[in-house]
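Reading a protein record of the kind used here takes little practice once its layout is understood. The fold follows as a row of integers, each naming the local backbone shape at the matching residue. With these conventions in mind, the following record can be read line by line:

_____
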Amino acid sequence: MKKIMKTIKQYYDLEKLDEDTLAYITGYENNGEYRLMPDKVMKTLPIDLRWDCSIHATYRALLLLLKYYREGHSEVFGQLKRCLRKSLESGLLYEGFMGELSTIDLLKEMIDIGIVDVLDNEERMLFDGIIDAFRCLLNNETEKDAILELLKKWDSDLMFTYGTLMKGQRNHFYLSESTCLGDSVLRNYGLMEIGSFPGAVAREGMWVTGELYRVSSEEKQQIDYLEGSLYVYRRVLVEMNGKKYYPGFYEYDSEGNGEYPFRPPYGKWSSGGFDPDKYIAYAVYGSNLSDEGMRRYLNNYQPLDSRPYFICHPVYFGNNSAKWDNGGVAFIDGERKAKSYGWIYVVERRVFDYIKKCEGPVWYDEELVLGTDRYGVKIITLTHSCRYRETDPSPDYLSAIGYGLQRRYGLSRDEISEYLGHETEIVSKRELLQILYKHTR
């Protein structure tokens, strides 16, 4: 104990603390919680300050135990593990631990010394939660490099697959013992069709949909042998459920092995080839112009693509919608020509059928084909087969469309009002969500 207390003084420059206080820092309970002062003093403090003093001491003890373990004192491993659990339960709230070590550096240290490998399932979930918080901060340029270094260590056993290793494909048995975390997307890469298998290469503006796996080193070695000299294994950022991961994947070496035609980026690769009839490029023009509006029908489904599109027919307001204060709602007049602002969502046919059902198959009974995109997928919008009697829309309905026009195309209030033929109030995102909730219940 005296040796540990001496180390504390040297490492934290705590000479001004008395021996009793040091004893409370170095002493610990079974749950890994530490004290900065005696219990009789702690009990006199307000609850929030009492917790703060405790957590500060726990963090400082964690740093000490980490340093002590690195120096070869394996006997503190159990104590270090308990202290780490307590720190994880608190959420590792502080970016700097008394100026000694940042949260990211501490997490990397824990991975390096192998303590994470002996965490139980609950502790692993806590650790995962801390890592996930940093995944969401990758757009922060000041922290990006440090977070990538952290993910490089934590995601070292992850693999992104996009071809014959995926479920239902001929080489999936190589991953039969691996855990699939879900479908994920690799941006700015495209798939070349190389006979009976694909190869991913860098391609601006395209994307690859695949599956994310947690693999063992033995499985990785077998797959290395399978992929051979056609591919180079490297780390890339992929997206899954709004979070970014840093797995390895096999990039096709097109310079050394030749180039092939690119496969359309919609959906996952299949040995049966790309079938454009499985997808619909759905062109919207009303209250679904914004992502917030469209999300009412998509729920957690992620569109395969989303992009601007101008419809070559005019928009008009007709019928009387009880959901929108008995005002008119938007339709396309397929018999006339004009330029209307739209937006395309590429979805699977089954998702489009669900959207059509939600829109109302009686009111929107016509699938108006506007053309095909560059991959042969039909561009379709929904409208009524006969022109309805025109009816003025409600202010809320106009605001819902106006929000989408402003966000998508940067139109001003006057430009939106002129385009819609009605005075339109521009609302905030919060106000839009309130409008959508009010009128779609």
